[in-house]
Specification:
By secondary structure, this protein is mostly helical. The protein has one domain. It is built from 6 helices and 2 strands, in the order αααααββα. A two-stranded antiparallel sheet has the order 1-2. The longest helix is centred in the middle third of the chain and has 30 residues. The radius of gyration is 21 Å and the shape is globular. 20% of the residues are buried.
């Protein structure tokens, strides 16, 4: 008998994919790294939420500058709901409850925010005839005024981290149901 033929094919395929096996070196399977990513993102989104929750009218004014929503009920509803959504997702990142769904919501929010900041930045470049690296404003995210390029870079990093969490095969250090392959 040749080596490997006495082992079922399924066992060979699963051998390299065991969490913590070390042979695959897949950093998406490192539960400690995933926990750090979750906690970093949780702190960021919880902080941002608390900066906006108590000031929905100010947040609505900042949102209006993007030109996506005009004054009226949809703008005010978004100004009230978005910070609470960020807070709920941040708490879910810490607790691990509804983790994958919360991360998916954060991915969508980041994509929308990056798109909105990109459009507003392009409009400011065109209107004021300034360089991309000179565009400076308060985006309304709760962290104060900054350069648009820095805001786009940091939110792209947040998006990548959220996608990493979304694609993680499983989670440790989370409450609730977890799927483990046998």
């Amino acid at each position: 008998m040749t080596p490997g033929h006495d082992t079922p094919l399924g066992a060979v395929q699963r051998e390299g994919h065991q969490p913590g096996s070390g042979s695959s070196g897949n950093w998406l399977s490192n539960p400690h790294l995933l926990l750090i990513v979750r906690l970093v993102l949780a702190v960021i989104f919880i902080y941002a939420a608390f900066q906006k929750i108590g000031k929905p009218l100010a947040f609505a004014d900042e949102m209006k500058t993007y030109g996506i929503l005009d004054m009226g009920p949809p703008l005010y509803i978004m100004a009230i709901v978005l910070p609470w959504l960020e807070l709920i997702c941040g708490v879910a990142l810490v607790s691990g409850i509804f983790l994958r769904g919360s991360v998916l919501v954060l991915v969508v929010l980041n994509v929308v925010f990056i798109t909105a900041v990109s459009i507003r930045t392009a409009d400011l470049i065109k209107a004021e005839s300034i360089s991309f690296f000179d565009v400076y404003y308060d985006c309304g995210c709760g962290f104060g005024a900054t350069y648009a390029w820095k805001k786009l870079l940091e939110n792209t990093v947040f998006l990548i981290l959220c996608v990493v969490l979304l694609l993680a095969p499983s989670y440790r250090f989370a409450l609730g149901y977890s799927r483990r392959s046998e």
